[in-house]
Write a structure and sequence with these properties.
Radius of gyration: 23 Å
CATH superfamily of the largest domain: Response regulator
Strand content: 15-25%
Oligomer: single chain
Distance between the termini: 64 Å
Strand order of the largest sheet: 2-1-3-4-5-12-11
Number of domains: 2
Shape: globular
Order of helices and strands: HEHEHEHEEHEHEHEHEHEHEEEH
Number of strands: 13
Structural class: alpha/beta
CATH architecture of the largest domain: 3-Layer(aba) Sandwich
């Protein structure tokens, strides 16, 4: 009899555990990437999924292959599957307004993730302070090189973040430019943020200027910084050039320690991804999310949560990106 009771008790416990494991998620949320080729996105997917599981949500991740039509199709499919919140890093910040309208028609919410969606009733925007990304780059460079030639390689002009970064750079440089201490020898945007495009721009500049090397190259993304370095190396240029970027990609961290790049702007991804989930849950429950400001998207003031970026150079690599697991100590010397 005692043995039978023990077996029954054990069986009951197993059923309870099985039920807990099979507990149905309360809601579906999706993180929609424009592409997944950037090193940062593997971290964001991991953080997003972990936080969603913690909050009893089913997380779905999509990759639009940098195709706005495909991203629109993915959004429709997700909404038809019952996804309650779309967290979108839009391929096109303007045409994505159609996704917002469709989501609202189906009773779902949309969060602009690291990219604002314009001309829409966007529910929320979560990102880093991209104006300060550019401002911190320029201020850092000016401390090292208060006089000299500056070359600016921005991101894709269709991405408002690229404009935010460029504006921060130019505003910080303005006093030095006005005083005649700094000369901007080239200021361009780079289509689709593609390193290959930046490489060709840099190669052409060096050809036309007879290798008149700029003292500072402010690039708005690490991939562009590495492309600029490649063009300099191939031209046989050995003089020191200050090069900046953003995203703290592992390869760039190695470049910084090797002296091939000077600075990257680190935008901690864990709070971004986790708060996207937290905000999604609050919106779905009719609760007010945490905000730091609001951003005008040409239609409305969108409530926003912006995190501060962190300048990273050779002096604070270990207390920032290594500490946060973006790159390990062992990988630094590989």
């Amino acid at each position: 009899m005692i043995r039978s009771k023990k077996i029954a008790l054990l069986f009951g416990v197993m059923l309870l555990l099985l039920g807990a494991c099979e507990k149905k998620a309360e809601m579906k949320i999706a993180l929609m990437f424009p592409y997944t080729t950037s090193a940062r996105m593997q971290f964001e997917e991991k953080y997003f999924k972990a936080k969603a599981a913690e909050m009893n949500c089913e997380a779905i991740i999509t990759d639009a292959k940098n195709d706005e039509v495909l991203q629109r199709k993915q959004a429709t499919e997700l909404l038809d599957q019952g996804v309650k919140v779309l967290v979108i890093m839009a391929v096109n910040a303007y045409t994505a307004a159609e996704i917002v309208r469709e989501a609202h028609n189906k009773g779902a919410y949309v969060i602009g993730y690291d990219r604002l969606i314009f001309n829409s009733d966007l529910d929320f925007y979560i990102s880093h302070n991209n104006y300060n990304v550019g401002k911190y780059m320029a201020e850092y460079a000016l401390k090292l090189k208060p006089n000299g030639k500056y070359l600016l390689l921005g991101g894709d002009k269709g991405d408002r973040n690229a404009i935010f970064v460029k504006t921060g750079q130019l505003d910080a440089l303005k006093p030095a430019v006005t005083a005649g201490n700094v000369k901007i020898v080239l200021d361009v945007y780079v289509d689709e943020w593609l390193p290959m495009n930046a490489y060709h721009i840099m190669k052409e500049y060096l050809r036309l200027s007879a290798n008149d090397v700029p003292d500072v190259i402010l690039t708005s993304y690490d991939g562009l910084g590495r492309a600029a370095r490649q063009a300099l190396d191939e031209a046989g240029i050995t003089q020191e050039v200050i090069i900046t970027g953003q995203d703290a990609e592992p390869q760039t961290i190695k470049y910084i320690l090797q002296g091939k790049q000077t600075l990257t702007i680190y935008k901690p991804l864990k709070p971004l991804a986790e708060n996207a989930v937290i905000t999604a849950v609050k919106l779905s429950k009719g609760e007010k999310p945490d905000t730091t400001t609001s951003i005008f998207n040409n239609r409305k003031m969108v409530p926003a949560l912006l995190f501060e970026p962190i300048p990273v150079d050779k002096n604070n690599v270990r207390e920032t990106v290594v500490k946060d697991g973006i790159i390990s100590e062992a990988e630094l010397n590989l």
